[in-house]
Fold this protein.
Amino acid sequence: MFRARMKAISPVIATIIIVAVTIAIAVAVAGWLMGLWSGYTNTPALSINTATLYNDTGTLVMLVSNTGTGDAVFQYVEAGGITCLSPSAIYVNGNQVTSYSAVVIKPGAQNVNVTITCSKWAGAFTPGQNVEVRVVLKTGQTATAWATVKAGSP
């Protein structure tokens, strides 16, 4: 007697629901695979275009670009395996900033001049040598390049 009152949804409604769910999942997967949703993540993509390290002063001159969708904020810089946490001077496009966290490369910025002077790097290398430079961002991402060591100062 109780079973006589139970009704199921119609097969047409069930088919429409299944098709709608399938389409929604397909759109989500396609968007993820094609990177359509990457604009919402605000991820920086820093690259070091050129780098020169002046041995006498320990000054690193870099041209950097950010092709990502978020700000690239420096955390620290390494040169030849020597980490510089407290540089004596930092300049971004000729303007002095007070700390690494003030080095913010905006999305789409190209060939931004970043100059960092660190006493740990002064005299640590030989002119003509190539050393690996690594910029670590606040997000944990890194950008690496080879810097040519030159005598003198910039």
The beta strands are 46-54, 59-66, 72-79, 82-84, 89-92, 95-97, 104-105, 112-117, 130-137, 142-150. The two ends are 94 Å apart (CA to CA).
